[in-house]
């Protein structure tokens, strides 16, 4: 599990530091600070997950890796601007009136 703390969203409730004090501390003004690099070992994931879920402003986010999709991406056909019919009042863009 990897997490990120967005300090611009933090309102200083301190719930994260209560649930997972090994990963969150509070600065001099009471705002959360992430301790470490955000990598959470398996044995501490429950406490950090609880801190993430209980954050009232959702300042803690779980980072997930994007995996390549098996299905190919379908490309969008671009309109043929060279042969665009503009003889009527409006250009035809594969739409019916």
UniProtKB/TrEMBL annotation:
The keyword Methyltransferase does not apply. It comes from the Bacteria. Its cofactor is [3Fe-4S] cluster. InterPro entries: Fe-S_cluster_ET (IPR051269). Residues 66-77 have a biased composition (Basic and acidic residues). Residues 66-97 are annotated as: Disordered. Pfam families: Fer4_15. Keywords: 3Fe-4S, Electron transport, Iron, Iron-sulfur, Metal-binding, Transport. This is Ferredoxin. It comes from Mycolicibacterium iranicum (Mycobacterium iranicum). The lineage of its organism: Bacteria, Bacillati, Actinomycetota, Actinomycetes, Mycobacteriales.
């Amino acid at each position: 599990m990897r997490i990120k703390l967005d300090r611009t969203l933090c309102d200083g409730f301190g719930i994260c530091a209560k649930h997972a004090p090994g990963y969150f501390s509070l600065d001099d003004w009471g705002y959360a600070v992430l301790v470490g690099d955000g990598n959470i070992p398996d044995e501490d994931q429950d406490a950090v997950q609880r801190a993430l879920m209980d954050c009232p402003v959702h300042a803690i986010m779980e980072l997930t890796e994007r995996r390549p999709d098996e299905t190919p991406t379908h490309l969008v056909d671009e309109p043929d601007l060279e042969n665009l019919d503009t003889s009527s009042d409006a250009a035809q863009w594969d739409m019916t009136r």
